[in-house]
Specification:
By secondary structure, the protein is of the alpha/beta class. It has one domain: TIM Barrel (Alpha-Beta Barrel). Helix content is 45%, strand content 16%. Strands 1, 2, 3, 4, 7, 8, 9, 10 and 11 form a nine-stranded parallel sheet that branches. It has a two-stranded antiparallel ribbon with strand order 5-6. Strand 1, helix 1 and strand 2 form a beta-alpha-beta unit. Helix 1 crosses helix 2, helix 3 packs across helix 5 and helix 6 runs parallel beside helix 7. The longest helix is centred in the C-terminal third of the chain and has 20 residues.
Length: 326
């Protein structure tokens, strides 16, 4: 089974104009699809950015013509009301001529605490996500929507500009509960770990045959030591796992949690340097777990151009040989 190669617009490490330029370059280089994070804070102060993802994606939709776009992921329950997310998604689908997928998740304290609503337990956050997805889906159906839930109320909402192509909904998963929610309510499964059991839970709940989109960081560079140092500086938080990442309240907390992470720890979990075979080997874990798409994250906002060039000339041919695609 072929696995498509994606590009990540990582809003935490580049400004909006650079992000738009990067995704246009990724399209020209032949990437199959692109995803964008949606943050209010970067993970670490060193990353240095966090522009609004929706405004940036609107600009990206105009700067590109072929490459599919996706939020990876938006939390539709705290910073945004689900009715607003539905309006944003429908508008972006129109601007992109049908190239948009709405990726949703239960959120992280890092980004959602800003509205002062507290940070409830994971079960409550999942309940909120299910209600939000129901509201968004109802609005995509057209007509007026009224909703009375445990967490959200909607009064006579309607989307006046709906695309002809319905916006597909993806849901991020990390365990059995979230995978079952995605299988029941989503068109796409989203995950950042190559665990086959996530897809099995997804299938059992109704997701069989639907796309599964993963994400994997790499730190490309011709100087491997420099690439490892960059990965450690900007991505030492990555190995904590989402049960931890969802709870920490800000960049200072992530910095504190990562103080004992060593360079060799990062280098053993993230491909660093310019070894094509190392990237293919790491990506194979996702293919073996049933993922149909994998978006790479190039670590370092100022390293996107050389990464895209290297991908086009060196990685992409090997990727097509290993995983198929055009």
């Amino acid at each position: 089974m072929a696995m498509q190669l994606g590009y990540t617009m990582m809003t935490e490490q580049a400004g909006p104009k650079d992000l738009v330029g990067h995704v246009a370059a990724a399209e020209a280089a032949g990437f199959d699809f692109a995803v964008s994070s949606d943050h209010y804070f970067p993970w670490l102060d060193e990353m240095g950015h966090s522009p609004n993802a929706w405004v940036t994606l609107g600009a990206a939709a105009q700067a590109t013509s072929r490459i599919p776009l996706m939020t990876y992921v938006t939390c539709p329950t705290f910073r945004y009301h689900p009715t607003v997310v539905a309006q944003q998604a429908a508008t972006l689908q129109l601007l992109s001529d049908g190239r948009f997928t709405l990726g949703l998740g239960a959120g992280e304290n890092l980004n959602e605490h800003i509205v002062g609503g507290g940070w409830p337990g994971a079960d409550v956050r999942q309940e909120m996500l299910v209600e939000a997805v129901r509201i968004i889906s109802d609005l995509f159906d057209g007509g007026y929507t009224n909703f009375r839930g445990e967490h959200f109320d909607v009064e006579s909402a309607k989307l006046w500009d709906l695309p002809d192509k319905r916006v597909p909904i993806g849901i991020a998963v990390s365990g059995k509960q979230s995978s079952e929610i995605a299988g029941e309510h989503a068109d796409v499964m989203i995950a950042v770990e190559p665990k086959a059991e996530l897809g099995e839970y997804f299938d059992a709940a109704g997701g069989a045959g639907k796309p599964r989109i993963g994400q994997m960081p790499i730190s490309f560079g011709t100087d491997r030591d420099a690439a490892v140092t960059r990965a450690h500086s900007l991505f030492r938080w990555f190995g904590f796992g989402w049960k931890v990442n969802a709870e920490l309240p800000g960049p200072i907390a992530f910095d504190s949690a990562g103080q004992f992470v060593r360079k060799e720890d990062v280098a053993s979990s993230i491909p660093c340097g310019d070894d094509v075979d190392a990237v293919i080997a790491a990506a194979k874990a996702y293919a073996d777990a049933g993922f149909t798409h994998l978006a790479l994250v190039q670590i370092g906002g100022d390293q996107q151009a050389p990464f895209i060039d290297w991908t086009e000339t060196s990685l992409m041919p090997a990727w097509r040989d290993a995983f198929g695609g055009s």
